[in-house]
Amino acid sequence: xxxxxxxxxxxxxxxxxxxxxxxxxxxxxxxxxxxxxxxxxxxxxxxxxxxxxxxxxxxxxxxxxxxxxxxxxxxxxxxxxxxxxxxxxxxxxxxxxxxxxxxxxxxxxxxxxxxxxxxxxxxxxxxxxxxxxxxxxxxxxxxxxxxxxxxxxxxxxxxxxxxxxxxxxxxxxxxxxxxxxxxxxxxxxxxxxxxxxxxxxxxxxxxxxxxxxxxxxxxxxxxxxxxxxxxxxxxxxxxxxxxxxxxxxxxxxxxxxxxxxxxxxxxxxxxxxxxxxxxxxxxxxxxxxxxxxxxxxxxxxxxxxxxxxxxxxxxxxxxxxxxxxxxxxxxxxxxxxxxxxxxxxxxxxxxxxxxxxxx
Length: 359
Prior knowledge:
With 359 residues, this protein is an all-alpha fold. It folds into two domains: 3-37 and 194-357, no CATH class; 39-190, Up-down Bundle (A middle domain of Talin 1), CATH 1.20.1420. The chain contains 14 helices and no strands. The protein has helices at residues 3-8, 27-62, 66-86, 99-103, 112-123, 131-134, 144-152, 165-190, 195-200, 212-235, 259-277, 289-306, 312-317, 319-346. The longest helix has 36 residues, at 27-62. The chain is globular, with a radius of gyration of 21 Å. The model is unreliable at 1-24 and 351-359 (pLDDT under 50).
């Protein structure tokens, strides 16, 4: 939890304090449902996709062909989607050992990561083809961004032939590293005495969450901060105020055409987390409509993003598809108000916080 977030919600009431005495909703129950119903399954799914990706990369390296290259690319897209869902839980185990940055180094505004990957491919550094050694190198060289360039960047077509074994070996090592990170995070969330127990069992002796307010604040912070990130960082990083201000090559996963799918995955993750936690059940009876409205808007946002297909530069050049991206931005803004202002007010939480404006 960021210092700013903690400070903003320090005077907040316990979730249960905002409810009628008869309401059987406890903060610990909400968190346990979030963990069991979303966090653990999401990171388990990521691990499964990462394993399939690693196998596909090995197959490509063993038998280079157009078919195996397409198979590897398909597994890459599946892993991106799984990560886009899981990454909304960007705290806890994934924050340890630089796992978050190692999984996805983005944004790379100064192209530091791109240059490092290109330099590695040019130099054919043998240590970069060993997942164990790669894990100790720059975070920009060992995650989804690096593998995207291997599979889709300049020279990627050589992967279908037998004349660029190094590029494939490096890509295979990156996939193996992604698999290792995903497995570590999955296992950490499963530990009975790990981070999950700290989040679900707040108390005065708990080093992270002293009471139910702080535990629920972490959850509510996911919804608010992730919506801000999706809209203000991911989307507006490439969608300009006007078409002539668009920057398609600033879009995440633009090479692999996974930009919109990633945005859809992010909102899908938020929706799944909200539904699994049943946080809406803690709302007073006259405010229950908010939970349904949140779910409907998240569902619409996912559908809107999924309708933007193909290369992002062509989507931006198509007025109809560009309008969909602007509509997606409006949906996230509406959700930010609904969750960050109205729902938090119902719970007696201080609204208007965001981890994006620093600590």
